[in-house]
Amino acid sequence: MSGIQVLLVAGTHGNEINAPWLFEQWKQKDSLINTHNINIQTVIGNPVALEQGKRYVDRDLNRSFRKDLLLSSDLNAAEHFRALELVSEYGPNGNNPCQIAIDFHSTTSSMGSSLVVYGRRPADLAIVSLIQNHLGLPIYLHEGDNAQSGFLVESWPCGFVVEVGPVPQGLLHFQIINQTLLTLDSCLKEISNVINSKTVYPEQLIVHRHLKNIDFPRDSSGVPSSLVHKDIQGRDWYPIKNGHPLFESLSGDLTLLLEGGLEEEFVPVFINEAAYAEKNIAMSLTKKEMWDVQKDWINDLSKLLNP
Amino acid sequence: MSGIQVLLVAGTHGNEINAPWLFEQWKQKDSLINTHNINIQTVIGNPVALEQGKRYVDRDLNRSFRKDLLLSSDLNAAEHFRALELVSEYGPNGNNPCQIAIDFHSTTSSMGSSLVVYGRRPADLAIVSLIQNHLGLPIYLHEGDNAQSGFLVESWPCGFVVEVGPVPQGLLHFQIINQTLLTLDSCLKEISNVINSKTVYPEQLIVHRHLKNIDFPRDSSGVPSSLVHKDIQGRDWYPIKNGHPLFESLSGDLTLLLEGGLEEEFVPVFINEAAYAEKNIAMSLTKKEMWDVQKDWINDLSKLLNP
Question: Where do the annotations place substrate binding (chains A, B)?
C-alpha cells in the first residue's frame, strides 16, 4: 500500500443521512465496499447535527472552512470548532494526514449522481475527469460565488463533493444508497489507478461552470411570491434558453429566464434544494463547457499521489 | 351566512411548509380561494416550529391533543400548551368556536392528495364521503393504533387531515400547492352544500382501513438494517400480496410481506415518510373496504352543521 490516505466524509450536513448510513453498514461489513487497496479514513462530518437530525447546529459546516475564520481566535459556532478539529486530525498536516477528501452529500434536487468541484485546482480537475470518464456523471464547477465559500474539501490539497438526489432530508432511500455506493467505488478505483500509474485520461472534461445563483421572486417581507415553475422543477441538468419559465405565482405570473441570446443554452442545477432557500438560492445557472484535459492537471495529481 | 365556522389549520408540523405558504398567499389575496360563503378561521398550528423549520419544538403537536393530557395540570411541552391554546380559542366551546377542523399536511410519501380520518366518527365519514365523491381521492382510516393518538382534529366534533405528497420537508412545490388548493376548495364546497342542504351523498365510501404499522428491520443498536425495497418505494396505495418484498439490505437480504392468503390484497400507505422513522414506522398496512354510506353519518353531520 502507498502512504496515501483518502478521507471519506459523510454527514457534513446532519440531515443528509444516506451516506452516514452507508458508512455504518460498511463498518459492520468490510466487504461491502472494495477499497481498491487504498488507505481510507471515514468520518462523520457533523455528528452532533446528525444525531439531532438537522443540517447544522449553529452554522453550515460546509461553509465553515474559510482559512481566515479557522485562523481567527474569535470562533464561537460549534461548526467552526468542528472544522478546526477535522483539519487538525485529517488535514494534510494533521495527526492522521489525508491527501484527498471526498465529501458525500444528498440533495432534494434531481441532481442524479454528480460531482462538485470548487474553483479550478488542477488536481481536482484531473481526478474528476477520470471519474467522469468512468461513470459519465456531470460535474458542477462552483466558482466566483463570494457569498458561498469555506467548503470542507478546500482544506485538503485535492477534494470534491459527491451529490446524489433527489431525496428528502432525513430519509433513507435504497436507490440513493446504491448511487452513492457506485460513485464511491468509482472514486476509489480511479484514485487507485493514479497511485498505481494505470490511468487513462480522457481528452476532455465536461464541466457545468457556475454563472450565478437565482433567488425566488420575493414579496416585501421576504417570503417567496412565486414558486419554481413546473416545467423546470426536477429538470436539473436540462438546458434552457432565454425566455424559459423559471417561476410561477398562484395568479399565473411568470418569471422568465432573461439571459443570453436566443440560441444560447444555460443549465440549471440544484433546482429547489430545500436547504438553499435560507441562502436565497432557488437554483444555480451554469454553462456547459468542454475543456481539454491539461498536462498540469495530470502532473499535479500525480505529484500529490506519487510523492 | 350560517353561524357555522370551519377551522383550517396549516403548519401543525413546522417543516410542512406548503399549506402555510398557501394560507399566507390567501391572506394577501382574498380571491385566491373561494370560501363558498362559509365562515372560515385559518391558523398556523405550530408557528414556533414553522419559524424554526422543524417538525416540532418538544413533541409532535399532532399527538398532543389527548384529552387526559390536556386536562392534566402537569404539562411541560411547548406543544401541550399550544394544543390547549388552540382548543380554548377555536374548539367547539372556545372563544371563537369552530365545528369542523381541517388540518393540512404534506408528506415525503407518494400519497398524492388524500384524506385521513381517525376512528369512525359518523360526521367525519359523512363529510369525507362527499369529498371523495367529488374528487375521487383515497381515504386512510386510522384506528386501533394505541401508540399513535392525540390527533388535533379529534378535539373538534368533526375533522380530518388532508395529506399531500410526495414533497421533501421544508420545500415549496408548485404541484403540492395546487393539489392542496384543489382539495381545500372541494372541502369548502362540500361543507357549503351540507349547510345549504344541497348534498348528494354517494352510496358507498371507499376506505383504506389501518391494520398495522410496519417498522424497518433493525440491528441490535436500533439502526435500520434494511431499506424500503425499490418495488414498493413510492408505490403508496398500490395493493400488494403475501410474499411481496418490503425491505432489502445491502447484502440483498429481502424482508417479505407475510400476511394473509395468496390472493388477499393489502395496501401500504405512508411508505418511507421521513418523520415516521422516529416513530418506528416504515409504512402502514391497510385494507381497502367499501362501506355503505349510513343514514346516521348523514344525520350527525347535518345536525352539526344545521343546528
Answer: 55, 62-63, 163, 276
